[in-house]
Amino acid sequence: MTAPDLLSLLLTLRPMPEACQAPVPDWWGRAAHALLLEVVRRADPPLAERLHEDNGGPRPFTASTLLGRFPRREGLPYLDPGQSYTLRLTALEAGLAELLFQAAQNGPLAPGASVELDHLPFRVEKAEPLSLAPSDVEDQGHPWAGSDSYQELSAAYLLARIQPPRRIALLLASPTTFKSGGMHVPYPSPELAFGSLLERWNAFAPITFPPEARRYAAECLAVGRYRLSTHTVPLKGGGLRVGAVGQVVYVTLNYDRYWMSVIATLAGFARYAGLGAGTAMGLGQCRQVQAAQEAG
């Protein structure tokens, strides 16, 4: 069995009573980003420094916003002391995957531990997956949690174990936007969506895919169906970022077994890599869904 390179760690958090006394942020992406870096810093300061550096390329991790119910008082969001919340951290490198998993087993992210988000205290109630063995989504306790390796993820299609599908459906769970031509585009066209996944795969996978995969997505894939809406995310400094949320189904117009194997592999990779810009700050949380869950 190949050691996992990829981890999607799902944390269930309960706010401490003192965290529920004052209004809280509408967006927790930066707080989740800071938590991940702090956990890494405790175990491996040089790695934390490398992750903190922004060299303009893809980051080997993603962080979600805090997900759950936020009751509003006088128009402002608050944490509910009777509710649990979820937070997701992912890793695209083996060393980081192992570090985060160990932190969730017997370290600062383990059940019972206290963590801070935006200087507010939470208690970790649960961390998934429970095992670091690479496995399919169906074998995990939660569809957003799991681990895998680049080899196993690609082998399913590229070694002819499974016939690649003609249709691929993606769920965009948080606002998703793409940098293109100096602008942010809040629409997951085939070229932008699979071009984003291809860039991340080739940045971290031991075996890269041909750049022509982006051309195949642009010329041979179409959006068959979609159910999308736009949502705004507050940025540092008071700005806003607009992104798409919902589901989208891509259909091949020119079926090719090899290229659709690449596309299907990238779709499975989306659960770990995220989609588009700002994935280290909560944007672009994405995973593949099955036909029964498709938009329509």
Detailed description of the structure:
This protein is α+β, with helices and mostly antiparallel strands. It has two domains: 6-128, Alpha-Beta Plaits (2-Layer Sandwich); 164-293, Alpha-Beta Plaits, CATH 3.30.70.1900. Helix content is 29%, strand content 29%. The chain is built from seven helices and 14 strands. Strands 1, 2, 5, 6, 7 and 8 form a six-stranded antiparallel β-sheet that branches. Strands 12-13-9-14 form a four-stranded antiparallel β-sheet. A two-stranded antiparallel sheet has the order 3-4.
- Identify low-pLDDT runs: 292-296
Largest sheet: 6 strands, antiparallel
Order of helices and strands: EHHEEEEHEEEHEEEHHEEHE
Q: Tell me the Rg in angstroms.
A: 19 Å
Count of runs of 4 or more consecutive helical residues: 7
What is the beta-strand fraction?
Answer: 25-35%
Mean pLDDT: 93
Task: Summarize this entry quickly.
By secondary structure, the chain is an alpha+beta fold. The chain contains seven helices and 14 strands.
